[in-house]
Write a structure and sequence with these properties.
The complex is a heterodimer of chains A (116) and B (494).
Chain A lengths: L1 H5 L1 H19 L3 H23 L20 H31 L4 H8 L1
Helix pairs in contact in A: 2-3, 3-4
Chain B lengths: L4 H19 L2 H26 L5 E4 L10 E4 L1 H28 L5 H20 L3 H20 L5 H31 L4 H11 L3 H17 L8 H8 L2 H26 L2 H7 L2 H21 L4 H22 L2 H32 L12 H4 L1 H15 L5 H15 L3 H27 L14 H19 L4 H13 L4
Antiparallel strand pairs in B: 1-2
Helix pairs in contact in B: 1-2, 1-4, 2-3, 2-4, 3-4, 3-10, 3-14, 3-19, 3-20, 4-5, 4-10, 5-6, 5-10, 6-7, 6-8, 6-9, 8-10, 9-10, 9-13, 10-13, 10-14, 12-13, 12-18, 13-14, 13-17, 13-18, 14-16, 14-17, 14-19, 14-20, 16-18, 16-19, 17-18, 17-19
Classes of the chains: A mainly alpha (116), B mainly alpha (494).
């Protein structure tokens, strides 16, 4: 039981990742695919941040009375990853808008139909 | 100044991009891009000479000492790839001016040049950095720029191609960052050299294997390892010509570099290659790529798609060397990065000239009939580059294939040698289709004559074709550098 509770955050991470990947592959709607992609990227944020947190730990500031510190590096890394994720999502949405202008549809099968 | 060359290598193109966006002038953008590309080439060559002879340059960004700070590290392998990337950039940038005029709306040129600089900065950054997370950031910088570059193509299919590439590329980058995250959890460091040392005491535990798997699949997507190559043909076919030439020569090659780095320098090669079936997997997938992708190319009508499929096959040669995991194989693999980069760059640069003169982005095998008479120099260049693609002695392609075959014989894998030969024969067949249409089929009587490509484009194109022949005879850089890099990877004395 404690093994499951101790790995709770990993369970959520894996669930988010697999769910995101499934949406990405199974949905034909270009927007829904992007939602899946964003979900998958979110799982990575959790993968980095959750192990960096120490229960009862504080920010790494040297002061009286604080002895347990959380690792700040994962947070910094994930701030960068969030920026990258936002940029990717913005570019993806822009491409979907352009595809809709050019094809009049954002359904993958309809677009492939109109290509030839 | 000289001490800061590793930083300048990345910072120059990175600063050029916002500068171009601010000035918004087409001519300025082109001149800046060209100047930056040449500056990068000079820096890369200087770094290569300084890092030569088994030495390595370590540069601490912001004077934060590694392993805490981000380290830029130039050694035999990274300097080789730096030269390849900046060499291609300095051929493609001056050529872009005329080529883009026909393919992209004029008010969008400055955006394209800015993205080109960002892409260059990203590719150089991946190669030079010694920090695992920094690789991810640069990977995304170059990839995001690449998606925009591809979406700027003329046809609306370019948008769908860019979208598909974006999905697969982002999944690849996310997988890579998951792998790095697992390694970080196990070692507590992001510096590649430090990570390698700390991994030794971690031992063979499941998170390390999971990290290896995630990084392999993630980077495999990026380098178009068969069967993860679906994004490549459309992305190459519908991008503007200069973009295809640049991306085809550099994009996948830099990903191969990342894979080599992780397999040989971060993970324990004994674990990767002895305990896991990596060797068999890579050899089988590479042979499949060499044969299947070549066969698809054989039946392709669109010339750009034809050579895009041929790229999938040629990446098979590169990954074959990884699977062989011996000195000759790796030397062949690394030198093929350069030799194939130059060859494919030359072909797509020449195709850009044909696109410009024919006035259509869709060039098929049937529409280039009589090219030998209409554009003699371009057609001649295509023949030479085609010979290099097949691997005819006297061209660059032969040298790396020779080393790959030697590597396969060292392993006693006769069937791999046979596969290389069969794949080369198929390559001969699809190159022959192009040559036959260009020279032996008479042009339609009513066809209007169109002349040679503009001089500026022709110089770049023939320069790259000349390199295909040059690297076929003078191998002190292509093989010498690759062998030094292979020694570095295998950890053996030169």
């Amino acid at each position: 039981m404690s093994a499951i509770a101790g790995h709770f955050s990993y369970g959520i991470t894996v669930f988010l990742m697999v769910a995101g990947l499934y949406i990405l592959m199974a949905r034909a709607n270009l927007l829904k695919k992007l939602i899946g992609l964003a979900l998958m990227q979110t799982s990575v944020y959790l993968l980095y941040i959750a192990p960096g947190k120490l229960i009862g730990g504080t920010a790494p500031i040297i002061a009286e009375g604080f002895e347990r510190y959380s690792n700040p590096l994962p947070h910094v890394l994930i701030l960068t990853a969030i920026v990258v994720g936002v940029a990717t999502l913005a570019l993806g949405l822009a491409l979907v808008v352009r595809i809709r202008e050019a094809y009049g549809s954002i359904e993958e099968d309809e677009i492939l139909e109109r290509e030839d | 100044m000289v001490d800061h060359l590793p930083a300048l290598q990345v910072v120059l193109p990175l600063i050029a991009a916002p500068l171009i966006i601010l000035v918004r002038h087409r001519g300025f953008a082109w001149l800046t891009t060209t100047a930056v590309s040449y500056a990068c080439l000079v820096i890369a060559i200087l770094l290569a000479t300084r890092a030569g002879g088994g030495g390595a340059i370590s540069y601490a960004i912001g004077s934060w000492q590694p392993p805490l700070g981000i380290e830029y590290r130039v050694d035999a392998l990274s300097s080789f790839v730096l030269v390849l990337v900046s060499l291609t950039a300095s051929f493609v940038a001056p050529y872009a001016h005329r080529s883009l005029g026909a393919e992209v709306a004029r008010d969008r040129h400055y955006i394209l040049y800015a993205m080109y600089c960002l892409c260059l900065a990203g590719l150089l950054g991946i190669t030079i950095t010694g920090d695992a997370f920094n690789i991810f950031v640069f990977l995304e910088i170059s990839s995001l720029a690449m998606y925009v570059l591809i979406a700027l193509g003329q046809s609306r299919k370019a948008l769908v191609a860019a979208y598909q590439y974006m999905l697969m590329g982002t999944v690849g980058a996310t997988f890579y960052v998951i792998g790095v995250g697992l390694l970080y959890l196990m070692t507590g460091t992001l510096n590649l050299a430090d990570m390698a040392i700390r991994l030794q005491s971690v031992g063979d535990v499941r998170p390390v294997f999971a990290a290896l798997a995630f990084i392999t699949v993630g980077i495999g997507l990026k380098l178009a390892l068969f069967p993860l190559h679906q994004w490549l043909p459309n992305a190459y076919a519908y991008a503007p010509s200069m973009v295809t030439a640049f991306v085809a020569a550099t994009g996948t090659k830099v990903s191969v570099y990342v894979l080599l780095r992780f397999y040989f320098n971060v993970f324990d090669p004994a674990v990767v290659f002895e305990e896991l079936p990596t060797r068999e997997t890579f050899v089988v997938l590479s042979v499949a790529a060499m044969i299947v992708a070549s066969l698809v190319a054989l039946y392709e009508h669109d010339i750009k798609r034809l050579f895009a499929w041929s790229s999938v096959a040629q990446i098979g040669y590169v990954t074959l060397g990884i699977g062989l995991d011996n000195e000759a194989g790796l030397t062949g693999s690394i030198s093929h990065l350069l030799n194939h980069g130059v060859t494919k760059g030359a072909i797509f640069v020449l195709l850009g000239g044909i696109v410009l003169r024919m006035g259509t982005a869709r060039v098929t095998v049937d529409s280039i009939v009589g090219l030998g008479r209409r554009m003699p120099l371009t057609a001649f260049g295509l023949v030479i580059a085609g010979l290099s693609l097949i691997g005819v002695p006297g061209t660059a392609g032969f040298i790396s294939k020779w080393y790959l075959i030697t590597g396969a014989l060292d392993r006693g894998m006769w069937w791999v040698v046979a596969a290389v030969v069969v794949s080369s024969i198929i390559a001969f067949a699809y190159v022959w289709r192009v040559v036959e249409a260009a020279y032996w089929r008479p042009p339609p009587a009513a066809a209007e004559p169109y002349g040679e490509a503009p001089a500026g484009m022709l110089v770049a194109a023939l320069g790259m074709v000349a390199l295909c022949v040059y690297f076929g005879f003078e191998t002190s850089f292509s093989i010498g550098g690759a062998r030094e890099a292979a020694h570095l990877l295998l950890g053996s004395a030169p």
